[in-house]
Amino acid sequence: MKTDALAQSKIETSQMAFWEKFKYLPEDIQKGLNNQSLKVVDFVAYSSKNLAGATIKELMEASDNQLEGITNVNNRKMEALQYFLVKGVRLTSAVIAGEDAITDTTIATAAFTTPSANVLNGELDILVSGKTALPRISCAVFGKSDAATEGLKGYYELDCPFMIAPLSDIVPTLRLNSNATTTREVVRFELFGCKIIPA
């Protein structure tokens, strides 16, 4: 998935927050960063899902496999050694026109934008390894004006960035009102930040 300039500017601010948490990393990871066998890179984890009429939907699933435009995270987990600091969350949606079956191709090429009223009236929470990383919040935060998000539709900057350890189960859950009509609506969920990879 291509990253635009506005998204890139949001990602880059996360590196400062990452280094503020350096002392909390395991000793071997600190050593790897110090001797430059490991490095910190900007990263956006994303997952695109067909709501398919559901009002409760996990936006990353254990069965996920990397596929361009659908997700870049396998099994909703970061790979070994990949500590990932999350600085912001983005949620966008699109409605697929027509009556043809919704496929990975139509989801990957959908025109995602500011979430619909269906989504904005819902709630989102994120669990990491069964623990709350983002307490349940109103999805209205993803409907802020372009001025508030510097033009990056659907973006919400976290007051308290959180770290995701390697191989941790990441479970973002979207909860919509029971009367939400989501039959042909698809959503894209993104985590903005930076992660550790081998140099």
Explained architecture:
The protein has 199 residues and is α+β, with helices and mostly antiparallel strands. It has one domain (5-198). The chain is 16% helix and 36% strand. It is built from five helices and eight strands; from the N terminus they run αααβββααβββββ. It has helices spanning 5-12, 14-20, 27-34, 104-108, 117-120, and strands spanning 38-50, 56-58, 84-95, 123-128, 131-138, 155-164, 170-175, 185-198. A four-stranded antiparallel β-sheet has the order 1-8-3-6. The protein has a four-stranded antiparallel β-sheet with strand order 2-7-4-5, with no helix packed on it. Strand 4 (123-128) and strand 5 form a beta hairpin. The chain is globular and about 55 Å long. The mean pLDDT is 91.
